[in-house]
């Protein structure tokens, strides 16, 4: 008997989102236990995002061509395998293996466009908009839950348990996905053409960009190494665009980027992701700073998780409201509400951050911001394209969301590192103030970017149910 699709798809999206951020609260501990710097430890988050950014558009395209169920199963299998490798490497104290496991986990980013494609094929028309909004919200809800549960788990059982959790979360929806109906495949699939070159160029561009940002301070911002990585990024991007324009089955369909509604939504998504992921990278580091620095709370991972609990709670509460609000007003208005709340919460932390209760209040505001902003994005994307473009369009949006998040995380680390003064390796409190206020400003820019979303997207319409995979 075919399984009910909604719970399986939601669990799959939740598993990916949890695994992405489950290391955030424990990053300082990973650095201490494995003998690496704070910047290097941050790559445990960035490696997942980078692999996800590369894999997601490929998965979206493959789902549109060969069936989203197959892609969903492959992504969850990668999440399970990566979790197993990461757990074993962490037990052995092998940072390189742990980093490889996190990158393999990141391949599961392809689960998200596959889930959107399956939702559009399998969900009843009157429930599609709610399911799409819920899937979009899982990106934020799962991310917040990952940061919250990580602390208590690490405090009781150690860091390897974070990856055993990932294995368990992957296996449950994996079995469910095997029970979903496969659906018919398109009759026009070109099995001879896969855009391997495009994927390689995209990977090179992303690696060069993130490497330049993360290592710029250590190498020197004007050094040949730093400038060389940024030049390599630009060259790879130019080559990628040239290849994609001439490829029959591109990894990223550049024609979709010219759709006004989708382009505006994608730009707003990148901007809000930079601001929000910068914030979630900053907060745990601030909380775990020893009080001898003159700021911070000296928290362990468990206390850090508790500090971020209001964020997760408010995400869960507000995400289901996003679809209703979008129907009553517009998807754009819902997104902008999230951007305003993010700017308020981050701005508050920029001015007052001396007591935990201030983080509880600001965290609740940020949770509501995540819930409204990210739940509305998926609805806007799906409503902007034809049904056969769902996987590709949601894949593009997810990769841009991931790139924005990776940039936000690395930029936050760079801002804090640049504020440190010898002989102390710790950032100054002024560095945190700058980082919080900069994140607030970026969230405000996301509000302005959303103004470009066309008026035709103001009200979310329910697309017709389709029968193709």
Automatic annotation (TrEMBL):
Species name: Phytohabitans rumicis
Database matches in InterPro entries: MFS (IPR011701), MFS_dom (IPR020846), MFS_trans_sf (IPR036259)
UniProt-recorded name of the protein: MFS transporter
Cell inner membrane in keyword set: no
Listed PANTHER family: BLR6921 PROTEIN (PTHR42718:SF46), MAJOR FACILITATOR SUPERFAMILY MULTIDRUG TRANSPORTER MFSC (PTHR42718)
Membrane-traversing stretches: 41-59, 71-88, 94-119, 131-155, 161-182, 194-213, 219-243, 264-286, 306-323, 335-353, 359-386, 398-420, 432-455
Domain Major facilitator superfamily (MFS) profile: 5-458
A GO CC term attached to the entry: plasma membrane
SUPFAM superfamilies linked: MFS general substrate transporter (SSF103473)
Keyword Transferase attributed: no
Membrane topology term: Multi-pass membrane protein
Subcellular location as annotated: Cell membrane
Keywords: Cell membrane, Membrane, Transmembrane, Transmembrane helix, Transport
GO molecular function: transmembrane transporter activity
